[in-house]
Amino acid sequence: MSQTIKKLEAFFMKEFTEKAGRIAIFSLLFMIPEFEVKIFFLFLFVVFGLASDINNKRFSTLISLPFSYKDVYLMSYTFIVTVVALTSLAGSAIFSGSIENGIANLISSLIFVTAYYGVSILSVSFGMDNFGVPFLVLIVDSIVSNIGISNINPFYAFSPTTQGITWLAAIIAVLIFLTGLYVFDKKGVQK
Fold it and tell me: How far apart are CA 70 and CA 62, in angstroms?
């Protein structure tokens, strides 16, 4: 357990050292209390994390540390979730004043981040771009989930952007996340 905490601490220090400015700006943007407004900033934060490091050939420094692929995947996700959770909760405490709205906003944000983290890592694991493919998935997701009447459109229920049925969207997000973990751990990266 203490070994895991030491690894996590080293990873967090590396991320804060390399990406301090980006983290500060996104932290302010994550305080926006409306999930629909926050989606694009959450998306950018996810795709410019580990997926960007892999795409820009900065992954070798991570893997040279005593981290396995699985460790890197999970620590990067933990880092993203920590930043999003802390700043979202702070934002909802400051701006909305409602604990219920803050928790609902946080859950929606975490579902979205979980799904698109998996999508971005799957994209770079197969040698594609860290931004283009996930952005295309985001556009298709946004369009398809908003076609027609929400009660009739099944994609509306489990889409990470609309989250018509929260628990169903969470299950789909976790499945995408676990698929990304499996592929990243078994296949490695192409870049």
Answer: 12
